């Protein structure tokens, strides 16, 4: 049975985390994204003008799936599209001998401009994979039958390298016990229900944060508008239309955000919520908590995930998420 671990290296401001992946004979840095289900990469089929500075998948090692294609649009309206190959993919020593690899033939500018990232490795449920005419499985779903345990874990860090594991739980990566909650995978996401919340030192939580997804591919923590408003009322922040979101002082006094999941309270340090100066050197920071307006559910992105050890677990049959303090 297989198991393995791979580094998750943060970009500036932990905007995304990138992990080394070998596809055929190509070594690329991919953004592992539990909020989508396509494994795609810059490739020899990507126009040179769109792939400056990127490592590329050389599809000559793969077997083309004739007539198959893919096209994906992300939450921020960025996207990519292309052809599909079956090839060997290795992540942290875990090997998928025939993984659907989606070679990009067109890519939006935000991906071309982000030269740290050579593509994405989706870890949501395969039901939202975009390959047509025959939907393909994610790397996790492809290797799942061969894993020691049908699970993967995510240990992201603030400003430091973290890791993903496949097939085992690294008990040295967390403190205390793991709290498991049921996952509703009907929309293809790792969706769970979060409970009460509080701001600052009082961690007796109240209210209800509600339906949320665990999304490593999203940088920030998107919460109900009323919760975001309550946080910034205490944090001395304000909604800044020009910035397109809440901002707050970078001065190190941002209060913690506490949220109950499965009856256990998890703490997001205030320092994670003073996310990044709105312009270089500014004393005003863009907020790591923003309103989920227009999304329809909460997104527990990296601002939350780097405060916990997260276990994405289908070993019990029904999918579940495990969270532990780190
Ligand atoms: C340039 C760029 C843009 C977007 C993303 C991106 N990756 O995952 C996600 C979230 C939102 C949802 O779509 C699924 N997870 N967004 C990555 C990028 F490198």
Task: Please provide a written account of the structure.
The chain has 326 residues and is mainly beta. The protein contains five helices and 25 strands. It has helices at 109-113, 139-143, 225-235, 270-273, 302-305, and strands at 4-10, 17-23, 26-33, 39-41, 63-73, 79-91, 94-107, 119-122, 151-155, 162-166, 175-182, 191-194, 197-199, 210-214, 221-223, 238-240, 245-249, 257-261, 264-268, 274-277, 284-287, 289-291, 298-300, 308-313, 320-325. The protein has a six-stranded mixed beta barrel with strand order 2-3-8-4-7-6. The longest helix is centred in the C-terminal third of the chain and has 11 residues, at 225-235. The radius of gyration is 19 Å and the shape is globular. 51% of the residues are buried. The mean pLDDT is 98. The structure holds the ligand Cc1ccc(-c2noc([C@H]3C[C@@H](O)CN3)n2)cc1F. The ligand Cc1ccc(-c2noc([C@H]3C[C@@H](O)CN3)n2)cc1F binds at residues 16, 31, 33, 35-36, 74-76, 78, 110-111, 114, 117, 120, 215, 217-218. Ligand DD4 binds at residues 16, 31, 33, 35-36, 74-76, 78, 110-111, 114, 117, 120, 215, 217-218.
Quick summary of this structure?
It is built from 5 helices and 25 strands. With 326 residues, the protein is mainly beta.
**Spatial order of the strands forming the largest sheet:** 2-3-8-4-7-6
Residue fraction in strands: 35-45%
> Unreliable stretches, pLDDT < 50, 5 or more residues?
none
Ligand types: the ligand Cc1ccc(-c2noc([C@H]3C[C@@H](O)CN3)n2)cc1F
């Amino acid at each position: 049975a297989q198991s393995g671990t791979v580094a998750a290296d943060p970009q500036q401001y932990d905007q995304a985390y990138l992990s080394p992946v070998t596809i055929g004979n190509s070594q690329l840095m991919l953004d592992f994204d539990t909020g989508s289900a396509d494994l795609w990469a810059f490739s020899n089929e990507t126009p040179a003008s769109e792939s400056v500075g990127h490592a590329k998948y050389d599809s000559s090692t793969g077997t083309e799936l004739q007539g198959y294609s893919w096209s994906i649009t992300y939450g921020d309206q960025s996207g990519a599209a292309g052809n599909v190959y079956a090839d060997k993919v290795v992540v942290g020593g875990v090997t998928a001998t025939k993984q659907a690899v989606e070679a990009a033939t067109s890519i939006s500018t935000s991906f071309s401009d982000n030269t740290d990232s050579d593509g994405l490795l989706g870890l949501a449920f395969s039901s939202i994979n975009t390959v047509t005419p025959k939907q393909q499985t994610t790397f996790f779903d492809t290797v799942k039958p061969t894993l020691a345990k049908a699970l993967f874990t995510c240990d992201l860090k603030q400003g430091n390298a973290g890791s993903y594991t496949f097939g085992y739980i690294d008990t040295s990566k967390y403190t205390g016990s793991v709290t498991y909650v049921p996952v509703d995978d009907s929309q293809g996401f790792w969706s769970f229900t979060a409970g009460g919340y509080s701001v600052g030192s009082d961690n007796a939580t109240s209210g209800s944060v509600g339906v949320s997804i665990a999304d490593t591919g999203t940088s920030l923590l998107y919460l109900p508008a009323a919760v975001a408003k309550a946080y910034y009322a205490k944090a001395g922040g304000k909604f800044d239309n020009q910035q397109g979101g809440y901002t707050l002082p970078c001065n190190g006094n941002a209060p913690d955000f506490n949220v109950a999941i499965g009856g256990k309270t998890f703490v997001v340090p205030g320092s994670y919520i003073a996310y990044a100066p709105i312009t270089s050197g500014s004393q005003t920071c863009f907020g790591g908590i923003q309103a989920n307006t227009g999304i329809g559910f909460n997104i527990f992105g990296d601002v939350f995930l780097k405060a916990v050890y997260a276990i994405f677990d289908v070993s019990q049959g029904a999918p579940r998420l495990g969270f532990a303090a780190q």
